[in-house]
Each structure stands twice: as C-alpha cells, then as structure tokens.
C-alpha cells in the first residue's frame, strides 16, 4: 500500500523541511514545494490526500492554495 501523500506549503524553508521530515518519520509521503504557486501546479500531478499550508505567504495565501 502506498503511503498517504501530503503537500506541505510554507514560505519558511526551515518550517517546511522540518514538517516534511516529521511526516516522513510517520510513514507519510510529503512533498514540500518552495512556493505556493509551485504547490498549485503540483496538486494534479502529486495527488495529495491533504494539504498543510501556511496561511500568510508572499506570493499567495494558504486559503488561495
């Protein structure tokens, strides 16, 4: 069975990579794109079960993602 995929969107690199590492340790398959606009392009290809996003980012809000 494939690990559940999670899209992790945060403009803060340390927060994004730390959360992705924690999720990997719990047997999830996180994808941490560097920017919100990149994340929206990955939605269809990556097919995440859920999206964890920062609310306030410079290029797009978490609600818009």
Average pLDDT number: 90
Terminal-residue CA separation:
28 Å
Q: What general form does the structure show?
A: globular
Largest sheet strand order? 2-1-3
Largest sheet: 3 strands, parallel
- Percentage of residues in DSSP E strands: 15-25%
Which stretches are low in confidence, meaning pLDDT under 50 for 5 or more residues running?
none
Overall SS class: alpha/beta
Using only C-alpha atoms, the radius of gyration works out to 11 Å
The helix/strand order is EHEHE
The amount of helix comes to: 25-40%
Count of alpha/pi helices? 2
Total number of β-strand segments?
3
Written description of the protein model:
The mean pLDDT is 90. The termini are far apart. The chain is 37% helix and 18% strand. It is built from two helices and three strands; from the N terminus they run E-H-E-H-E. A three-stranded parallel β-sheet has the order 2-1-3, with helices on both faces. Strand 1, helix 1 and strand 2 form a beta-alpha-beta unit. By secondary structure, the protein is of the alpha/beta class.
Would you spell out the secondary-structure blueprint of this structure?
Blueprint: E1 5-9, H1 13-25, E2 29-31, H2 36-46, E3 50-53
Parallel strand pairs: 1-2, 1-3
